[in-house]
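Hi Y.,

Following your request, here is the sequence exactly as I used it, all 78 residues.
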Amino acid sequence: MNVNDLTMGEIDEVETFAGQPLSTLASTEQSNTKLLIGLAWVINRKADPKFTLEHAKKLTMNEITALLEDDEQDPKDK
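Below is the corresponding structure, written out as tokens. Let me know if you'd prefer a different format.
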């Protein structure tokens, strides 16, 4: 899932939950755990409207990384 495909409302939900802007995801200076949980929540909710924050909190780092993997791939490699 490409983060650029999220609506502004979804980004707002992630940022509100995390208490920090999405742009800090690239920062190594602070914890990104809540941003990752929030992203997992809104991305999974697109496919399953019943997917909750509690579900997202139970995901492993590998599962969250897989969700965001498309965002890191070069479009010509797809």
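Residues 18 and 78 are 31 Å apart (CA to CA).

Thanks again,
Q.
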